[in-house]
Write a structure and sequence with these properties.
Helix content: 10-25%
Largest sheet: 4 strands, antiparallel
Strand order of the largest sheet: 3-4-5-6
Number of helices: 2
Order of helices and strands: HEEEEEEEEEEHEEEEEEEEEEEEEEEEEE
């Protein structure tokens, strides 16, 4: 009886032991599977990276990085100083890293990718065949971090002078390489030159020359700002010339009395009639009733001294201005 009981206990322990082993094996397998699926990838700056030294040899390539694609399964991997293409879903080599000094992702519509070989940029298909042999001189120091790739049927191309132009999907140069950069913007193209920005029409003719520090296209018009001549944003009509709104604010807020000069008879710490507004980090003053701009947005701080006098600050200096925006001499 005792022997039979002992046997039952041993059998029970064996079953439990097997169950425990299976449980942990399953967990380990799941954990490995999770690592295989997710563990060796991590996101940073919108890209998917793989570090081969941490997990395992990636198809015996030991790449430095794998950059995932936002538009499909074909990503880019880097081995030493060379780039190739890989299917990031099944770890299959698509185009080996044997000659490309730089590479960018395939676009989602035309399956064209920009690559650099022997210091020049060309364009390939997903088989690695050149659609356009390396033609455009590429200097990484001039273009480091810039995204070369087709967008809405156009791609930026470089020049030996470090300038940029545009080609279409037939590889015709539609914008000469004379700008610092070119980028699509709604139905226009933003052009950059000497730290200024302008616009091209969709037919690539100049719409607004590169004379502004900032341009943004809205449904109601075009926001422009020239820091050298005016502290305020303007809203232009779509002719690029007519000013619809002279002073465009990004925010409105109450103006408070300076705590050292608070007028008790007003029974409030806020101005009754005037408000402050913001543009590009600077502050101006506006009449809340009439909408008249008292002072454009060019100050660091604005306070009320009275309902007729404002304290404005710039670079730790304080000035008094009246309700017409004129300086008051002390």
């Amino acid at each position: 009886m005792k022997t039979k009981k002992t046997q039952i206990i041993k059998t029970t322990f064996k079953v439990i032991a097997v169950a425990v082993v299976l449980f942990f094996t399953n967990c380990s397998t799941n954990s490995k599977e999770e690592n295989r699926r997710y563990g060796f990838f991590f996101f940073e700056d919108g890209n998917l990276y793989y570090n081969s030294e941490v997990y395992f040899n990636f198809l015996n390539l030991k790449p430095d990085y794998v950059f995932d694609s936002d538009f499909g399964e074909i990503g880019i991997y880097k081995c030493g100083d060379l780039y190739g293409y890989i299917n990031v879903y099944n770890n299959g080599i698509t185009i080996p890293a044997i000659k490309f000094e730089h590479a960018w992702h395939f676009d989602s519509e035309f399956d064209i990718a920009a690559v650099v070989e022997n210091g020049k940029m060309g364009f390939i298909n997903k088989k690695g065949d050149y659609l356009l042999e390396p033609t455009f001189p590429y200097n990484n120091e001039k273009y480091i971090g810039q995204p070369f790739g087709f967008s809405d049927g156009y791609c930026v191309v470089p020049s030996a002078q470090g300038k940029a132009g545009l080609i279409d999907t037939t590889f015709n140069l539609v914008v000469d390489t004379i700008y610092d950069w070119v980028s699509p913007e709604s139905n226009y193209f933003k052009i950059y030159h000497n730290d200024k920005v302008g616009l091209l029409f969709s037919d690539f003719t100049v719409f607004i020359p590169c004379k502004y520090d900032y341009i943004e296209i809205l449904d109601c018009g075009i926001i422009v700002n020239d820091y050298m001549s005016d502290f305020m944003c303007k809203l232009l009509d779509f002719d690029g010339r007519t000013i619809l709104v002279n002073n465009v604010a990004t925010n409105y807020d109450e103006i408070y009395y300076d705590e050292n000069y608070y007028e008790m008879e007003t029974d409030t710490t806020k101005s009754i009639r005037y408000a402050q507004f913001y543009c590009d980090g600077c502050v101006g003053v506006v009449d809340k009733i009439t909408g008249r701009v008292i002072s454009s947005a060019k100050w660091d701080l604005v306070y009320m001294l009275s309902e007729n006098v404002f304290i404005v600050c710039e670079d730790s200096y304080m000035f008094l201005i009246d309700i017409n925006g004129n300086f008051i001499n002390l």
